[in-house]
Amino acid sequence: MVIAVISTPFSISSVDFRRRPSFRHFSVTRATASLSSPETSPSLQAAPHTVIRCKAAVAWEAGKPLVMEEVEVAPPQKNEVRIKILFTSLCHTDLYFWEAKGQTPLFPRIFGHEAGGIVESVGEGVTDLQPGDHVLPIFTGECGYCRHCHSEESNMCDLLRINTERGGMIHDGESRFSIDGKPIHHFLGTSTFSEYTVVHSGQVAKINPDAPLDKVCIVSCGLSTGLGAVLNVAKPKKGQSVAIFGLGAVGLAAAEGARIAGAGRVIGVDLNPKRFEEAKKFGVTEFVNPKEHDKQVQQVIAEMTDGGVDRSVECTGSVQAMIQAFECVHDGWGVAVLVGVPSKDDAFKTHPINFLNERTLKGTFFGNYKPKTDIPGIVEKYMNKELELDKFITHAVPFSEINKAFDYMLKGECIRCIITMGA
Ligand SMILES: NC(=O)c1ccc[n+]([C@@H]2O[C@H](COP(=O)([O-])OP(=O)(O)OC[C@H]3O[C@@H](n4cnc5c(N)ncnc54)[C@H](O)[C@@H]3O)[C@@H](O)[C@H]2O)c1
Ligand SMILES: [Zn+2]
Ligand SMILES: [Zn+2]
Known about the structure:
Layout: E1 5-7, E2 50-58, E3 67-73, E4 80-89, H1 92-99, E5 114-122, E6 134-137, H2 147-150, E7 177-179, E8 182-184, E9 196-200, E10 204-206, H3 213-216, H4 222-234, E11 242-245, H5 249-261, E12 266-269, H6 274-280, E13 286-288, H7 297-304, E14 311-314, H8 319-327, E15 335-338, H9 353-356, E16 360-363, H10 371-383, E17 393-398, H11 402-410, E18 416-420
Parallel strand pairs: 11-12, 11-14, 12-13, 14-15, 15-16, 17-18
Antiparallel strand pairs: 1-2, 2-3, 3-7, 4-5, 4-9, 4-18, 5-6, 6-10, 7-8
Bound molecules: nicotinamide-adenine-dinucleotide and zinc ion (2 copies).
């Protein structure tokens, strides 16, 4: 709820890292979203010079419960939009950076990157979004102008690619959040654990306003990553076998992709047998727990499938599982896709003969989806009942109890917990 609106002047910095559009690459066949002209277009509606005060769950210290605070949210600046968040969910990446193990801690910070909301106001230069639009903020973006955005093969935007270390907005490096004038860091440019947030317009997907935001908010991250790893990268043919390593939210989203692709056998591999029961609801029909076998997992799978699976998708972050996922695909045509994020010092080791024997290894970021161009289509798949989302949502809490969502995830009890703002 907006508690008070204060009128404050704000200045627009001249610092902007956005490149001017290069039309050299304009002849792409895939229709891609592009933002408003970066420097010159007037906005549909000028940003009001107002600061919003609202509730946000602030992480003051690594691993300590979030604290509900009243924060000031500055108006959106150039190429930014301010969004009223209605629903958000918790993903492992929030948990990982909140725990801050093995990274440079950045606190105080407002986490959150899977969410759905409504545009409240837009900053200068934003012409593709307007107040009232239903949107999903996305942790990675699509500027529409760089070489990656012009390539139909890439979603690794030069300007708005995920940056876990940035605590301010790209436009001026400053935070739009503060408490009594003291800045609070952003997270992934989304910071959705706040009733209002400011996001670069290139990280905002405009979706069908009829879509239920309490369901489709999960499309913002993990769901799309696993789904796209199968549908866009592994691309199993109808009836082909798929092995999925890691049956967390991302692996289960890969299973949903396998179901949509019409895959035949879907084999789930996980060290935690508790995951197997849940995975049956996602069409995983056979299970391998590496701990229960003396043989290597590759060999177990080769024996189960007469030489190897047609496709495999690794969703664990374990380099051993990555090697197993590659070596368990059939020679001649097998394709393995890596999704999990490895540790800093990991090295992938396999014999080169595995490649010569016509196995293919690929990796994917965010399921190869372009955030603005492709995410609205995933929401449409849900609306058309092609995609099942409800089975991913195992828990729900009001915003005031957001710390419970962290407990559920820490205990490994939930796939996705929906957090209702304003409650
Ligand atoms: N590439 C991307 O764009 C992208 C995006 C989001 C998440 N991720 C990564 O995807 C991975 C999965 O995310 P999640 O949220 O589903 O995680 P999760 O922790 O919920 O699930 C991982 C599962 O893998 C299992 N596992 C771990 N090591 C294993 C091994 N050696 N063999 C078999 N199973 C093993 C665990 O028991 C767990 O069930 C993470 O590494 C995450 O960082 C990547
Ligand atoms: Zn770009
Ligand atoms: Zn995520």
